[in-house]
Design goal:
- The structure is a homodimer of 445-residue chains.
- The first copy, chain A, has 445 residues and is an alpha+beta fold.
- In chain A, 41% of the residues lie in helices and 20% in strands.
- Chain A contains 17 helices and 16 strands.
- In chain A, strands 1-5-6-11-10-9-7-8 form an 8-stranded mixed β-sheet.
- In chain A, helix 1 runs antiparallel to helix 5, helix 5 crosses helix 12 and helix 6 runs antiparallel to helix 12.
- The two termini of chain A are 46 Å apart.
Chain lengths: 445, 445
Amino acid sequence: MAKNTNISTKALAGFMELLPADQILFNQLRDSIRQSYERYGFIPLETPIIERSEVLLAKAGGETEKQIYRFQKGDNDLSLRFDLTVPLARYVSEHMNDLTFPFRRYAIGKVFRGERNQAGRFREFYQCDIDIIGNEKLAVVNDAEIPSIIYTTFKQLGFDQFTIRINNRKILNGLFDWLGLAAQAGDILREIDKIDKIGAEKVRESLTALGLADSAIDRILQFINIKGDNETVIAQLQELDIDHPQFKTGVDELAEVTKYIIYFGVPTTNFKLDLSIARGLDYYTGTVYETILDQHPGVGSVCSGGRYDNLAEYYTDRKLPGVGISIGLTRLFYKLTTENIIKSDTATPTRVLVYPMMEDLKPPLELAAKLREHGINTEVYTEKAKMKKIFNYVEKLGIPFIAIVGEDEFKEGNYSLKDIRSREQKKVTFDQLVADVSAQCKRTM
Amino acid sequence: MAKNTNISTKALAGFMELLPADQILFNQLRDSIRQSYERYGFIPLETPIIERSEVLLAKAGGETEKQIYRFQKGDNDLSLRFDLTVPLARYVSEHMNDLTFPFRRYAIGKVFRGERNQAGRFREFYQCDIDIIGNEKLAVVNDAEIPSIIYTTFKQLGFDQFTIRINNRKILNGLFDWLGLAAQAGDILREIDKIDKIGAEKVRESLTALGLADSAIDRILQFINIKGDNETVIAQLQELDIDHPQFKTGVDELAEVTKYIIYFGVPTTNFKLDLSIARGLDYYTGTVYETILDQHPGVGSVCSGGRYDNLAEYYTDRKLPGVGISIGLTRLFYKLTTENIIKSDTATPTRVLVYPMMEDLKPPLELAAKLREHGINTEVYTEKAKMKKIFNYVEKLGIPFIAIVGEDEFKEGNYSLKDIRSREQKKVTFDQLVADVSAQCKRTM
């Protein structure tokens, strides 16, 4: 049958599809995040990609509903999940009696949003989430563990200079209530969230447009402008003349979280109280987080989240407070690679290419099997090809070694090992071959 | 807001959703398969879950088209992938010039089929595929590497007694052509494939129903009944009076593959020539594989595949022969767990639960941070709870150790380490703690 030239073989717009070298790099990041989450004892969890639409749309508002991939199959009204939190809420409600609380779970999986098509926006993308869910209650110290996990995760990804920005929604909400602006808190928070992007003056304009008095706006902008090291910020908050119980609880929580974060081993250079952080989403009720790469602020927050009072109010009467974060891995990867912050250096897991230079394939195939038993990723080049083609193959893929098995070497019980980077070739025994390759693999890990 | 009691929190029928202990076990299998595939130098590849319907349906026939999840989003006619092979064909066609041939890729991912609902059948399930794709040609020795990968993979999964059954479609097709039954080859192969399930007599009835003469049926059944060790089968095939070029090529290939498999290190107890294996799918053109767990034949083939002439004829004019296999991991996992062939023993990655028995959380949090730095998965129990509740927590989750940090221990610079299995508790230094936990973790790996 001939090619059907009408069929486009491109991946759909907004769907990431990587070449081998980038896919390997992507997997390294994903593995690293997973290892870091498990280091903190989070339990892996996987829920289906397809859910009943009524589950996903129980809470969802306008934007989500427009973006969702929804379809009918037989009698079922189905949708693709648009985040990992709603499925978690359903899962915990369903399996409540089989779970152990506090329930610490991580999930790394694809979610789907039919967003408007633009560079850096994906319609199918990975989220890497952790959440700690309490049954009826959950201690504030958990809010301090989260920055510790963010810290470990980004360190392990290879970053040193990043800042976890922390705030507490009770402080903001208490302030607004004290100012008589409680009803508008959501709208005000949304505007404040933009201060980094659009600046204080634009925020002032938006707040004026919301009908706030100049005195209230002054008070809010002064407030979110409280700056300094963490002790200074806490001290300033404690000295403020705002006599409001929610505000005071928020300040106490923030002080406690700040103290514990240090016990968890996070350096003070990597976290910072920032009273302007609000995280637009309505369900955060306490501590909130954002994470900025210091040298690449344009990338935006690479890890965000917060404390919420009730995970699953739409599915169960049980009160399930929790705290969690999410890394949008697909977008993060896209930013890191397009801005050349990270780069892939190999397009294969193979460390040794065995190249048979003799008719009898027994010695080369046996060598490959033995190398694999020693934990070395090995392939055999079995196609008929000239040496030049072989070199082209290993160089394109980034394979560091060729082990040549020829008649002469075989008679001597040796192999010729070629180091592709140094271009050196030497005769080695099997043990030397394993030692050389293992040493090189360790260096590049 | 109160619970919306109309919303079912169950996962949809046909969609696997695991509790933590089973999820961890599932992940162990998936990781093991991945490691095994990488050991052979296969490149990880991921394609989107959503594709253009025209791509997926370019070849698909009746059943696939009925089962596919297809929907409209904006102007796009979209579908969820139903296997990993069609997306691979599209990918290779699209990225041909960026790939290196032979192209060795593995893919582990979810696929979707709206099958009729029945136990053990899943609508969303994992496939774990490898394929070796040649550009215009691909040596037969690759067909021998595949059983070697199956062998390594199932050994690493913990199985010893399994049999990789091997045949070559050219032999069967040559035989049918020689019998003047070439036009019916597909139908005949489909019936032969059922011989294990329904027996020879039922197959005879089906072949009679297809209009085959008794003499031809005798010849076919005699043929697929050729038994014995691998050398005997090859010898018998070579002695047959079937003078047909395709038949002879098939016998030669099977002989070559059998020779190389042994070089690759597969014990003769783990593979077997079986002339009844046909693998219904029309696109296999050479070597074909099935894998049976010897003690659990009812599970069916746990890993199947074969050689094909042309991967991507619908998307490119380039000829891309290949050979590959697929493990249906979700179904395999379901069978292995429901038949109690494998069992999970832990419901968390955590190895040590740090339990603070003092007001000041600094020492316990610092201990946890230090343990994590030593690569030990650690969590801290920070909720207020009695000792009995803590024990219940670690036993339900299968956490092997509790490290108690109390005032007395802290003053002495020690910790109390409780081994949950032996119920022993002893005072240890940090180094002893790390050594004890590491030793236990190694034992259970």
